[in-house]
Amino acid sequence: HAGFFMRTAPGAPPEGMTMAATSSIGGLASGLETATIISQLMALEAVPQTKLKTQVTTEQSKISALQKVNTALQALVTSAGAMSTSATGSWATLAATSSNAGVTVKASSTAVPATFTVTVGQTALSHQAAFTDAHARTDVVTGATTGVLLKRDGQDDVQIATANGTLEELAAAINAADAGVRATLVRTGTSGGTDQYRLLVESATTGAAGAFELTGSDGADLLGGATVRAGRDASISIGGIDATSPTNTFADVVPGLTVTLGSGATGTADIAVSRDAAAQAGSVKSFVDQVNALLTQVASLTATSKDGKGLLAGDSTLRRVAGALQDAIYPSDGTSMAKFGVEVDRYGKLTFDSEKFTEAYQADPAAVAAAFTGATGFAGRIKAVADAASDKFEGSVTNAITSHSTTITRLNENIERWDARLELRRTALERQYTALETALSHLQSQSSWLTSQLASLSASTD
User: Fold this and answer.
1) Helix%, strand%, coil% for the chain, nearest 5
2) 89 exposed, middle or buried (CB, 10 Å; 0-12, 13-18, 19+)?
């Protein structure tokens, strides 16, 4: 700011006086708070720009809300896509049950509905060798050498060396060799105050193919020989057809079906493979809940009630999307989804009756699946609506976001133009108040000069 305070020597005429300038217009001559006055006037001048900035903030909030809706729509597209495909996913899920607790069964997507009986022949066992002699852990037990020999049919013999041939080292060396067997020391009692152990060696897997023989490195019996429990394969019979497995699990014994025997399984098991109505009802409920969550989100944003207005109150784009989602419940042939448990309530939300759905699905799973799947099924209709709204190029909600973004660009351009106008206005106000201070300073100087002149004349007269 530029301001002036004029000082005149007594007796000098105003026209001839010399003024000294200062760098302030802080009311030195007028006594006014000119800086404050200018700031207040500028605040009034900036009201239109402030309104523009508020509009920008509002538009940005609207874009954020629309983007959240768009994200929810895209998630709905994904869910609807999965729901509308009958060949995979939840519609292909089968539930398999067994009447025998010792026989469990699991169906994959390649299984087909069926019923049959499984008769348990035997369960699978690992091959075990329980050695006779008991020793202290530190006793040397390997014989003439410090190693042992592991023999299995159809495989090369494996020499297992130990450090000193003690019982403890032997068990550790067998486990470290990773040769398909594992060793355990079993405490059997004490002798002379020293704990005694016997060696138990077992094949790492069940089945007859796990058979082995463990001897001294020269082929002599180890630890007094062993009591052997031979390994064996599990066996079952389905309709008189025998099947075996090296484990208690029979994978794909029937296409898409895995049967597993418990360790003590015996007897027979009635197996039933059917459509999993409970799982499918859960999937449909989750899908309906997802649609309702989106409808709730849109309703909140577009609310126009006396209790309050939403951020996008009256937005026609979102209202059309909500209406299309509600209309998607009705098939094009004029029927309804009510018989499958899906309806629209008086608030515009979808409802799902799990019991009604389950009853319909158990009675005719193909008909229920047809009502939900495919391009014209319920899930397909929902997908079409969500796709049309959220498409990244032509989606209606996407276009709305673009429109609000364009509005923000235009508002920001206007705000920038207002910056220039306000700067010019501030400069003009500063010049006006500088001129005022200058003029007042001149008048004050003249007044002082006249006062001094009159004082001089009065003194001369006296």
Assistant:
1) 45, 25, 30
2) middle
- Which residues fall within 8 angstroms of residue 150, CB to CB, at 6 or more apart? 157, 158, 159, 160, 174, 177, 179, 181, 212, 213, 214
Q: Are 152 and 211 in contact (CB under 8 A)?
A: yes
SS3 state at 332: coil
Radius of gyration of the chain (CA): 47
Closest among 342, 396, 376 to 80, alpha carbons compared:
376
Could you report how far apart the first and last alpha carbons of the chain are, in Å? 47
Q: Residue 213: exposed, middle, or buried by beta-carbon count in 10 A (0-12, 13-18, 19+)?
A: middle
Percent of the chain at pLDDT above 90?
55
Q: What is the pTM of this model?
A: 0.60
Q: What is the mean pLDDT of residues 36-51?
A: 80
- Per-residue tokens: 240: 């008189």
Crossing angle for the helix pair 47-83 and 396-461, to the nearest 10 degrees: 160
More confident residue, 3 or 199: 199
Coil, helix or strand at residue 146:
coil
pLDDT at 167: 96
Contact in structure between 223 and 133 (CB atoms under 8 Å): yes
Residue 57: CB partners within 8 Å, gap ≥ 6? none
Q: How many CB atoms are located within 10 Å of the residue 14 CB?
A: 15
Tokens of 314: 């009256």
